[in-house]
Amino acid sequence: MSKQISNFKFQISNFCRSLLLLFTCGLILMCTFLTGCESFPGDEDFYEITVAPEKLRQVETLELQKAEVQENGRTDANEPPPPELELNLEQCRALTLENNLDLKVQLISPAIAAERVGEAESAFEAAFTSNMVYSIGDTPAVTSLDDISGSKVKNLYTDLGVQVPLRTGGTVRFDMVGNRTRTDAPTSFNPFYSSDLGLSISQPLLRGAGNRANTHAIRIAEYERQITDARTKLEVIRVIAAMDRVYWRLYAARKELEVRKKQYDLAKTLNEQAHRFVDAGDKSQVEIIRTEAGVAQQLEAIIVAENNLRDRQREFKRTLNKPELNMQTSTILIPTTEPIPVRYDLEKPRLVAIAFENRMEMLELELQIAEDISSIDYMHNQALPLVTMDYRYNINGLGDSRDDSVDLLFNKRFEDHRVGLSLLVPLGNEAAKSRLRQAFYQRRQRLATRNNRQALIELEVLNAIDQLEANWQRILASRQSAILDGRLFDAEKRQFELGLRTSTDVLQAQTNFANSQSSEILALAEYQIALVDLSYATGTLLGAAKVRWEPIVPRSSIK
Fold it and tell me: How far is it, in rounded angstroms, from Cα 204 to Cα 168?
């Protein structure tokens, strides 16, 4: 009966040992799978680029083909007109936020910064530890004066544990240790098994102690995340403000072309009148030459205005970055939002205060100052002596089988307690003091930068206010000038019909009238752009619609 019980215990012991080994291997494989078996999207695969030396060192020539000469340098009138697309300012803003390339680049930064916060927080994750060692030893020993014999020992050591970092700076570790030893030395039982169940705590008391010191990295990462969000918001405001400026410049370019076309029609009408007067004998032949020269000048002005409009449209399309509306498409963009010339009561102190509150550069600087304060506090802690207290509690088990060893372990007959205290005091501690002084100087520099930045922001706001007021005065002056030049043109035209003026006088009045109209259009557009600049200087946006951005998180299979 006792032999059967012994065999049964032996089988149980083998089963437990095999189960422990399988459990260890399974945990190792599971940890490997969870931490190392992640895949990236196909567009993230590694690739190499090999560039030929000629590509880097040889400058190629540009060969151009001669164009076929067309009458008046104009395009074929039989060509179908390009498609047109009408867009208001709100639609342009929405398309810009959705497609702008600069913004797409910046919107990924908050996702990266958020992952850095997660990385810092993961410093307090618990970790599973496992260790397995098999050793064979043969230690010589003196048994008599003339004889030296050896003692062979075969040992299988296994250790399973969990390690938990604490926010106080300490570390708690739970571990289960098992040993199987076989020796040729005379012992009560061979092989024998030992088991240990332990709890250890290590806690620094000065340097590295405390929740604030150990969460410094998390705090810095969180500040950096908020700084990245502030920079992203600034980029959103910058992109929308740039969109508004491009929009109003495109509006001005289209209106300028309309003015030049009207002046061209007026010049043609004047040329026809000159032909009639010459045919009737009322004017000399030179009037036809003068009016034809005027028509040619207006045609040149149209060509310049058309080219300027194409440049503005390409800039507009690049800012929109709509896939089906790239810069090489012939689609004509027509801005439908009209400028509203309204004079505003600009309170300088209030606008400066709004700028201090809303400018992301100021918020970024405040966050950096908070980083510096946290760094000074952390460097103070790191300059302290290193005092560490260690405590370990251990329960021991021993037996001729693993089951007996574990039974004795849980009976808690044999217990160990160990308390230790270690001290490390750098002599001089110059490195820590230098780091502390660097952090202190950095904070002083930030404070000086904050005062300088406040002065620059105030200067930008005041300049934007003055520019806005100046552009309003330009609107009034150019509008009055356009009215008077229009009347003068009509008067000169009537005088020409009565034979009291030459066509040169009419053409000069017409040119002045066109320039006045162009100035009025430009003043309207510049007034709208000045409003955009003022809102940008205060860290805000024009319009009633609020803008909210969300970060772009690239696709990844990493969990």
Answer: 8
Q: Residue 11: inside a domain, yes or no?
A: no
Phi, psi of 332 (to 5 degrees): -90, 125
Task: Mark whether 314 and 410 lie in a shared domain.
Answer: no
| CA separation for the pair 386, 365 (Å, rounded) | 34
Beta strand 332-335 pairing with 84-87: parallel
Answer yes or no: is 130 within a domain. Answer: yes
User: Distances from the Cα of 427 to the Cαs of 209, 430, 539, in angstroms?
Assistant: 21, 8, 51
Going 312 to 316 to 317 to 321, the CA torsion angle's sign is positive
The encoded tokens of residue 339 equal: 């400028």
83 inside domain: no
Mark whether 362 and 457 lie in a shared domain.
Answer: yes
Q: Do 405 and 496 fall within a single domain?
A: no
Query: Which run of H or E residues covers position 85?
Result: strand 84-87
479 and 393 belong to one structural domain: no
Residue 414 region, left (φ>0) first, then alpha (ψ -120 to 50), else beta? beta
Q: Quote the tokens at residue 287.
A: 């009037």
Distance CA(225)–CA(478), nearest Å, equals 49
- Which residue, among 129, 204, 198, has the nearest Cα to 166 in the 3D structure? 204
**The domain containing residue 365 runs over which residues?**
89-117+218-371+437-537
Q: Measured between alpha carbons, how far is 548 from 544 in angstroms, rounded to an integer? A: 13
* pTM for the whole structure: 0.76
Cα–Cα separations (whole angstroms), residue 69 to 38, 421, 442, 443: 63, 95, 67, 69
Residue-by-residue pLDDT tens, the chain, 559 positions: 444 444 444 444 454 454 455 455 555 555 544 554 455 455 555 556 777 777 676 776 666 666 665 554 444 445 566 788 888 888 888 888 888 888 888 888 888 899 899 989 989 999 998 889 998 887 776 565 566 666 788 889 989 999 999 999 999 999 999 888 888 776 667 788 888 999 999 999 999 999 999 999 999 999 999 999 999 989 888 988 999 999 999 999 999 999 999 888 888 888 888 888 888 777 788 888 888 888 898 899 899 999 999 999 999 988 888 888 888 888 888 899 888 888 888 889 999 999 999 899 999 999 999 999 999 999 999 999 999 999 999 988 888 888 888 888 888 888 899 999 999 998 888 888 999 999 999 999 988 888 899 999 999 999 999 999 999 999 999 999 999 988 998 898 888 888 778 888 888 888 888 889 999 999 999 999 999 999 999 988 876 556 777 777 777 666 6
Write out the two tokens for 262.
């009207």
Q: Where are the alpha helices (DSSP H) in 184-215?
A: 211-214
